Amino acid sequence: MNLKQASLIVGLSMTIFITSPVHAAVTLYDQNFEHPAAFVNDGGDVNIFNPVNELYGNQPVGFSFAQTNTVETLLITGNQAFGHGYSDPSGKGGNYALGMLSTEQNDWLGLSFNVGSNPFMNVRMDISSIDLSVFGGPFVTPGAVPTFEFTLYDNPSGVNSIGSGKILDVAQVSGIASPRDVFSWTEASLPLSTMGNTNGNVTLRIDLLEGGYAAMDNFHITADVSPIPEPETYAMFVAGLGLMSFLARRRRLLK
């Protein structure tokens, strides 16, 4: 490869990077579940009788929950679960997290909100296998891995729901096995397309497909006005920078 050919390659890689879509994210929702409106320990460090929306609805205004069956709020720092309380070695869970069943009864949690005119969104959260020592538990088979499914629905009416009708996008994520009383968090990041929604109103349904029982915490939802640049675009840019450095050194040697 001569200098002229190398310079052309550098120019092309830089042009592709510069003209690629620029990521511009707007934070819509940031919820660590540390401020429940009226948490009650119903036994075993579990609030089972207060629905999630009663504890966390409209935090902030415009974000509301709906659920099928019981989706629990867990007191991570309590002392009743399994006779001694839960353990969270990483501390990522703080004081509270949400928990749901998979197969014992099919729990669903829906989060309804407005994504605006943004065609993309990214959902980030922490998930962990965990179990209950009360209310029919334990439910987790040793070694079981939690798998969550996230389904984004169009919600033209804007009514709080668990989601129905037109599906905009679907994604799944799995955690790792953990002892029944220990939170072992996995960070999940899910890019979802909102394209095709009617008026910006959407519902994100969360369903635990496998694992018996599991927890989720630290929801962070951003809306994107443009796609995130593809990883290969960055790779080309970095390669171009390296080639530029090589060419500069070679020119100095040839002088």
From TrEMBL:
Q: Where is the Ice-binding protein C-terminal domain?
A: 227-251
Membrane-crossing segments per the record: none
> Would the keyword Nucleus be found if you checked this record's keyword annotation?
no
User: What keywords tag this UniProt record?
Assistant: Signal
Tell me the first and last residues of the signal peptide. 1-24
Question: InterPro entries from the entry?
Answer: Ice-binding_C
The identity of this protein, by name, is: PEP-CTERM protein-sorting domain-containing protein
Classification of source organism: Bacteria, Pseudomonadati, Pseudomonadota, Betaproteobacteria, Nitrosomonadales
